[in-house]
Design brief:
Distance between the termini: 20 Å
Number of domains: 1
Oligomer: single chain
Number of strands: 11
Shape: globular
Number of helices: 18
Structural class: alpha/beta
């Protein structure tokens, strides 16, 4: 708990919220980008402690949630093939595709394994030279360095039976898409601290300037979040639009240059579909031509697979901050964690899962925060 307890200190949280109440003079709508921040907010009841003038809406920063339906179907098609070991983080196994999920494929005899790192998947490939081993490489900028490292190590070790199914997305283009929407009501952003630990926040500077909107890089503990809210509200009240670093213990403006260089060595920018949102230009990464041999989509010829999402699921509106989970007619009845219509209900970082788990009961840490 060292270096964490102070960021969960109830007295410090309350004193920061008191400063927010002293500062705010009119309604403001803020969006936290990251699903991890959403869960921390709902779990600790932070949104209920804030003044009525502050509304928090939930952004698209849940990598499981925004992985497009067709990528899930491609994963299912690959995992169903004989002599394939399909590896993934555990939270992807219950994300529904068009007709099934990875758990169903495993139940039908597919070799689907949970790993904690792409390097674990690479080790499985080394141990099973007669099998094709595929890692489901999803995520924002945060997970990209580890996925890149697995490719570089596979190249160095000459492991030819390893490939990755890439579904990487990037935060800055998503922010621009939200701000450019005619339905946008977001007036300030809480940027994801772990993304910025890798990439820095230099990419946010022109966005803040272009749209005249403040952005605060924020961590994940209760004090981190309310400090980020305070910094953003102070900017809004002053009529300013800076990018503030409210997470200085982990983030610098330039980020981790070595990680960025490794990403640029292996990946290139591409247009990417986001589940529930649609195509966002230049919002993703894919393997560049030098590393195309490690591309599972090409290796297993599944590029042509397409899919349509359930019309009952409003996850796209939730991910854009237009609707709250409880505004969905299917929430809690047709759509539950046991029977999800969309990824926002099944993911550990999904907004719908957070509301389902915490909103209808006291905040887990209420005795500490309230």
């Amino acid at each position: 708990m060292k270096y964490l307890a102070e960021y969960r200190d109830a007295e410090l949280v309350h004193s920061t919220i008191a400063k927010i109440k002293e500062t705010v003079s009119q309604p403001w709508t803020l969006m936290e980008i990251c699903g991890g921040q959403t869960h921390s907010i709902i779990k600790n009841g932070l949104d209920q402690l804030l003044p009525d003038e502050i509304e928090l809406v939930h952004g698209p920063g849940c990598p499981v949630c925004v992985t497009p339906l067709e990528l899930i179907d491609k994963a299912l098609a690959i995992a169903s093939q004989p002599d394939v070991i399909f590896t993934s983080y555990g939270d992807m196994l219950r994300v529904p595709g068009s007709q099934a999920d990875l758990f169903s494929i495993r139940a039908q005899g597919g070799d689907v394994r949970v790993v904690y790192s792409p390097l674990d998947a690479l080790k499985i490939a080394q141990e099973n030279p007669n099998k094709e081993v595929v890692f489901f490489a999803i995520g924002f900028e945060t997970t990209a360095p580890a996925n890149v490292m697995s490719i570089l190590q596979a190249e160095q070790l000459k492991v030819s039976n390893y490939s990755i199914l890439v579904s990487h997305v990037r935060v800055p283009p998503a922010i621009e898409t939200i701000l450019g929407s005619p339905n946008n009501r977001v007036q300030g952003f809480l940027a994801a601290g772990h993304v910025c630990a890798v990439m820095g926040y230099w990419e946010y500077l022109p966005i803040a300037k272009k749209y005249q909107i403040p952005i605060s890089v924020t961590g994940f503990e209760p004090l981190d979040i309310v400090q980020g809210i305070l910094d953003t509200v102070e900017s809004l009240e002053a009529g300013e639009s800076p990018v503030k670093n409210s997470y200085i213990r982990a983030v610098t403006e330039q980020g981790n240059k070595a990680a960025q260089q490794s990403i640029n060595r292996v990946f290139e920018s591409c247009d990417r579909k986001w589940r529930g949102i649609g195509l966002i230009p230049n919002s993703g990464w894919r393997l560049n031509s030098a590393y195309a041999d490690f591309d599972a989509e090409q290796r297993f010829n599944v590029q042509a697979i397409e899919a349509e999402e359930s019309p009952l699921c409003i996850s796209g509106l939730v991910l854009q901050g237009i609707k709250k989970p409880a505004e969905c007619e299917a929430f809690g009845n047709l759509c539950t964690p046991e029977n999800p219509l969309g990824a926002t209900m099944v993911s550990d970082e999904g907004a719908c899962a957070a509301y389902y788990r915490y909103r209808n009961q006291p905040a887990e840490n209420a005795r500490d925060i309230k």
